């Protein structure tokens, strides 16, 4: 029994929370870029929040279900059709055998997550089902989904109908303020560079993927080459290469850094990176460590309030 | 006051975003420092490892990504500083010597001629210089299973390409700046390709997916194309 990807979409892949703990082997974490949306989708089908889901990006798939199951879609909003009838994000959808779910026009955001009742019939690799798109490995055939792929899932009784609270209607406006704290090389940037970085609005370029997100704006020009100690590169690090155009590192990126980092995006804001696309506009603001910690705790409290 | 002798560490601990700290060691990259780093990495793992997602060693640093929902940065940093105050015994890890067969034939060595030209030596001299050294693995990183090697002959130093190649085949052996390395998976890259190994450098199906650990040693062995193809076949079959 399985899900049949009649059309796979642009970059549809199997993801869970990834594989932390392997960066010392050069293996970045992978996993759902918008982990909040992934957790919501899993909650809606009554599964552990870290269960594997299908990550959809920009152009969604067309899927035929070869068995009845409960599914849910969270994250980016697409025009979503089940057998030609509109269905919606953030509530449980019961599908019957041979039903067809189709992702049509993208309305907001970039990445949506499809959670499903039933268990995957594939095995985790290095502790996770996630697909590492740059290193080309993962539980599903070591790659993203292609047209006509089948994802095998055990059959289970349908899960009860659930709906997220209305206040979860996240709006992906395309204009975001991302909060940051200091990074390893922050002190080495000139005052002018730092001021320019926090004062200006950057645009997301088309080079925006699971490895990294390149930005463009007024160049943060270097007067001198900064001293770099190569060291661990975390998700959300904002590196500034010699051309002065920042790059945000992401889940499938490299594990050790090449360019000086002006700041790192706080943990609470990382899931939003999964919803960035070319043309989106970003501002950055510096917050204190204790605020960053409070914001992460608040995100967790908020997320739990939606799913209880 | 900073104290540097064999058993004391001279370091600073710097912020790396809200959920990571980086220990930067105040001494040049060397085997001795890597041995200390391996010890510190183990000490951290054994003491505060349960609060860490990742412990990432590099030439002169260790980065710790910790679980911000379990500990605040201040608490975590205090614990870390306590560990770093202890005298450190450099790791006595017995290095394994790992031989890596490399075919330097032009088919695989896309940039060998260019590099030889830049270094002002013959292609054969490049191969001899590259295969005559034993390289120390300082750390893994960048790509899955990528080894950061120390010990490249200064004869072979060559700046990275201005425009990186978009697709470098897995197994490509390359030189960039004062470093040599092997691309474990297909990737873009700016280093000069001087050969290719048939040995898989990364295997996600294995418990330990990389072929070497920090402090292991690498020696490149030149092989011909027929041997390359034969080995490639053997490794493929072994992996079935």
What does this structure look like?
The complex is a heterodimer of chains A (308) and B (240). Chain A is mainly beta. Chain A has three helices and 16 strands. The two termini of chain A are 31 Å apart. The mean pLDDT of chain A is 94. Chain B has 240 residues and is of the alpha+beta class. Helices cover 26% and strands 28% of the residues of chain B. In chain B, β1 and β2 (20-25) form a beta hairpin. Chain B is elongated. The A-B interface holds A 20-27, 125-126, 132, 134-137, 142, 181-184, 186, 229-232, 234, 236-237, 254-256, 261, 263-267, 289-290, 292-293, 296-297, 300 and B 14-20, 22, 24, 41, 53-65, 68-69, 72-74, 139-146, 148, 184-187, 202, 204-205, 209-210.
Break the fold down into its secondary structure elements and pairings:
The complex is a heterodimer of chains A (308) and B (240).
Chain A: E1 2-7, E2 13-15, H1 35-44, E3 53-57, E4 62-65, E5 69-82, E6 85-87, E7 93-95, E8 100-116, E9 150-152, E10 175-181, H2 191-199, E11 202-208, E12 212-216, E13 237-239, E14 247-249, E15 261-265, E16 281-286, H3 289-306
Parallel strand pairs in A: 10-16
Antiparallel strand pairs in A: 1-4, 1-9, 2-3, 3-8, 4-8, 5-6, 5-7, 5-8, 10-15, 11-12, 11-16, 12-14, 13-14, 13-15
Chain B: E1 11-15, E2 20-25, H1 31-48, E3 52-57, E4 61-66, H2 73-85, E5 97-103, H3 112-119, H4 123-131, E6 135-140, E7 147-150, E8 165-168, E9 172-176, E10 179-182, E11 187-189, E12 192-196, E13 217-223, H5 225-238
Parallel strand pairs in B: 5-13
Antiparallel strand pairs in B: 1-2, 2-4, 3-4, 6-7, 6-13, 8-11, 9-10, 9-12
Helix pairs in contact in B: 1-2
